[in-house]
Design brief:
Largest sheet: none
Number of helices: 12
Number of strands: 0
Helix content: over 70%
Structural class: mainly alpha
Strand content: under 5%
Shape: elongated
Length: 226
């Protein structure tokens, strides 16, 4: 075989090898993203199912951990003056309101998952467990808050929570101080905002927990994308 023929053959083999590796990388990327998205969607479904059931919402520690400090302080004050029953009622109102946010939150989160790219997957590989949820949180938190806060506000107004709390505490000034010095007219909005924050952050806590439980499957599926 002449030298030129040998050179061409070698170049052909090298090109074929590169093309094969490229195809394998593309295939791995597609499979890895599919696994990643499936697991994240599983976490979203798990979280929204909890939101749809009042008792599950109330008993979930990941949601309880997301309770804003302002509401913790309010509940502590109520308990100190012997109104633990009212604290429970407030929590039940928030749990009931959460059920009305499910259908609003679902498409926002699903669209964000479906929009994940190979670049996002590479970031997740580098970031490790919890990185995928962090990306979703960065991209959807503000949108979720804007979408669900009006629904939460409407339900809590319907329940008359501020009026009940003011009557229990004997003065709207106490409640206003606990919620950042707001006027009486703005108190429902304040409680609604904090309740909405708890819902959004609690939902991401559940999604992240689900991601961490499946971190090995995610990272193994994305190994070819490093």
């Amino acid at each position: 075989m002449r030298p030129n023929t040998i050179l061409v053959a070698a170049m052909s083999v090298a090109t074929l090898g590169t093309a094969t590796q490229s195809c394998m990388a593309i295939a791995t990327s597609g499979v890895g993203l599919a696994v990643l998205k499936q697991i994240l969607l599983g976490g979203i479904t798990k979280g929204l199912n909890i939101f749809g059931d009042k008792n599950s919402f109330l008993s979930n520690q990941l949601i309880n951990a997301a309770l804003p400090q302002q509401l913790r302080d309010l509940n502590s004050t109520l308990e100190k003056v012997g109104l633990s029953n009212l604290v429970q009622k407030e929590k039940e109102y928030i749990a009931q309101a959460a059920a009305f946010t499910v259908e609003t939150s679902k498409p926002i989160l699903i669209n964000a998952v479906n929009g994940l790219t190979a670049q996002d997957a590479a970031r997740i590989v580098q970031g490790g467990s919890g990185a995928a949820t962090q990306i979703l949180k960065e991209r959807t938190s503000a949108q979720l808050m804007a979408a669900i806060a009006p629904k939460v506000d409407a339900k809590l107004n319907e329940f008359g929570i501020v009026k009940t709390l003011n009557q229990a505490l004997g003065s709207s000034n106490i409640l206003g101080t606990l919620l950042g010095g707001q006027s009486s007219n703005a108190l429902t909005g304040g409680i609604s905002r904090f309740a909405s924050e708890q819902m959004v952050n609690g939902l991401f806590n559940i999604i992240e927990n689900h991601e961490q439980q499946n971190s090995s499957a995610i990272l193994n599926s994305l190994q070819g994308m490093k």
